[in-house]
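Example 282, ligand glutamic acid.
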Amino acid sequence: MTVRTRFAPSPNGLLHLGHAYAAVVAHDLARARGGEFLVRIEDIDGTRSRAELIPEFLADLEWLGLHRDGPVLHQSTRLAAYAEAGERLKAMGLLYPCQCTRSEVLAAARQSGPDGPLYPGTCRGRAVDPEGAAWRLDMAKAVALAGPLTWTDELAGVQQADPQVFGDIVLLRKEAPASYHLAATVDDAAQGITLVTRGMDLFQSTRVHRLLQALLDLPVPIWHHHALLVEPDGRKLAKRRGSPALRDLRLAGADGTALAEDLRQGRLPAGLSLGHGVGQQA
Ligand code: GLU
C-alpha cells in the first residue's frame, strides 16, 4: 500500500517555523517510503479562516522545496461529506442537540478535558430545539458501542484510545459546520492517508479520531506525532510571540530549501529546541 502523509494547516494566520518543521516531517516521511505527500487546507472555521492566506501557504511550501502530490483539498468544499457523517451518527442515536452558550458551558463545567472545559451533559436527554443547535457526541454511548479501541503511534507505540476524557464533544455546529475532529477524520479517510503526521499537541485528539473511525467504519491509519519547536520558556512557537512568518522570510529573499534542510538536520534557529509533551492546543 502506498504510504500517504499530509500537511493540514488552518489558514488562521501565516505559517511560521513550527509549521515548516511539521511540513518537512510529513514530506520527508512520505518521500523516504516512496509515498505521497498531500496538502489539505483546514478552512472551515468561519470566524477565523482567511482565504487570502491559502496562496501564501502554497507558495511557502514550494519555497521550502516541499512539492506536494495531487490536488490540494480544501475543507470548505467538503461540507456535504461532514454533514453525511453527522447524519449517520445521528441515525445511530449518538448525537444530541445542545443550545448551551460557551459561557453556560464554562459556568457549568466542573472539570477540564484536553479540549477545554468538560461539558457536564446539561442538554443530554432533554427536549432541545435542534434548529441552530450544536450537536454533541454522547460519549458514553459511543464508547459502549465501539468497545475497547487501540491506535498506534510510530514513535510512542500502541495506545489505548479511551476518548471519555473529552466528554460529550461538539461534532457539528452552526458557525464551523463540522468540528476539527470530525472533518479531519473524514478527510484523512477520503484522502487515503495511511500515516497521519502532526505535532505532539494533537496526540490526545487521536483518541477521538480513533473512536470516530470505528463508528463510521473508516480505515485506521498509523500516526506519527512529532516533537514541536519550542521557545526557550518551553512554550510552542506562535506568531503572536514574534516567531517570523515564512511568508516574510520568503519575501525577504531567504533560502527556503536551506531552511528546510536545517530543520531536517536539527539545526534550529538560536533559542529554539524540539520539545515533547507540549500541552494540547485549543
Ligand atoms: N489544522 C491543524 C493545525 O493547523 C492540524 C490538524 C492535523 O494535522 O490533524 O494545527
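Summary: The radius of gyration is 19 Å.
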